[in-house]
Amino acid sequence: MTKRILLYATLAAGAFISVFPYLLVVLTAFKTQGQLNSTAPWLPGLPPTTDNIAEMLAGDFPRFILNTALMTAALTAGQLVFTTFAAYAFARLRFRGRDVLFWLYVATMMVPSAVTMIPLFLIMRELDLVNTWYGLLAPYILGTPYGIFLMRQFFKGLPAGLEEAARIDGAGSLTILLRIMLPLCRPALGTLAIITVISSWNSFLWPLIITSGDDTKVITVAIATLKQGIGVDYNLMMAGSLIALVPMVAVFVFFQKHIVRSVVLTGLK
Fold first, then answer.
1. Neighbouring C-beta atoms of residue 74, cutoff 10 Å
2. For the residues 240-257, what does the mean pLDDT come to?
3. Structural domain of residue 19, as residue ranges?
4. Is 12 helix (H, G, I), strand (E, B) or coil?
5. Least crowded by CB within 10 Å, which of 42, 83, 184, 196?
């Protein structure tokens, strides 16, 4: 009984530490400036106000939400399509240098993304793609090393007899991929889609570097720009953070079984 009590106490403490920042976001978003200065951060402001959220929604913030949604949808679609084709080629097709090329590509995961930001920006500047949708999407829409690695490992785990039987019946590589392999890869595709949606929605550094106008600004950059000036309006920042948080909470509520399965499948924390 003592061990069980200690276990649940530890789990409760970890859950509280994880949830507490989100609680502060909600409480601060519904406070006035006076309530923020007169009450403790972990206490609600009475009476609560929705003026901060209304002010954010009345401005350009809805446009930034739409920009983020479009970017997320485009990157997710691109990842699923191009990553699947590349992974199938690395897993099933035979060509010279296949394994060497694959492991060289996967080795780029060891390089921090911040290291490649400046070279990517210089390339986009030479191509005149700075502050454009093409520049925002180009580095990641054609697939990522992690996505290709995940799908390749899943393809390699499928029985080879299915593909051999299809080839005996006269099916080509494209037919095998679309009609046999893809229906079996739904768990991996769901995992890749969830990871891509979350990472794209929360992306900050690359959009901050490559975009400067409102036409391509995403919500993470929009929230960060609220810190510019003499003072910082934490009420508006937390209201914007709360609005940005709602879609991800909805994704978790509706796809929590798939998210748990993706954690099991990939080993991610």
1. 16
2. 84
3. 1-48
4. helix
5. 42
